[in-house]
Amino acid sequence: EMHWVSKLTRACDESRFELYFQPIVPIGANVLEHPREHFELMLRLRDESGMLVTPAEFIPAAERYNVMPSIDRWVVRQALDRLVHRGGAGVKPYPIAVNLSGTSLNDERFLEYLIAELSSHELAPGAMCFEITETAAIANLGNVVHFMRELKARGCHFALDDFGSGLSSFMYLKTLPVDYLKIDGQFVENVTRDRVDRSMVEAISQVGKTMGIHTI
Question: Is the pTM for the entire model greater than 0.85?
Fold first, then answer.
């Protein structure tokens, strides 16, 4: 992991990160209710030899040695400068979802950076969505709630990722002003074969509907 620190620092300096995306699409009756497109950004690293490196290989080291705020800044800057919805006649609005690490959520300077960046771009409401994991949100609840309220006041949306993985998921949901719940993959993977998993997905979906939160 320590070996990764210098590699990540050089990658930041040389802008060797790359962004991929995956679409988040409505199904069933939701197709008509939510017709606009929605995309989540995925981060990759191009190493010195030109090989593509997945996040699982470098994110743990980046978080442990506090490099993630610098990487998150790079992703946010790229999204705002090049990818986010700008509006215009005949163009459907679409949200771009960016994952934020727990270390960035606790960095007051990172919040100041985001506010400054957002103020310099004229964004459509909901054009920028930040994803945070349930684990990170619960571990730093006070900071995260403050963080979310500051950015929601500026038109941003939030998604709570890996929802259902923690024992206290529903208890904290009233406190966190989220727009989307991303159900943890361990429940979705066997939803057609496991009645318990199906019940968990149904329960999370129902709570989301009651609270006016979209489930993914």
Answer: yes
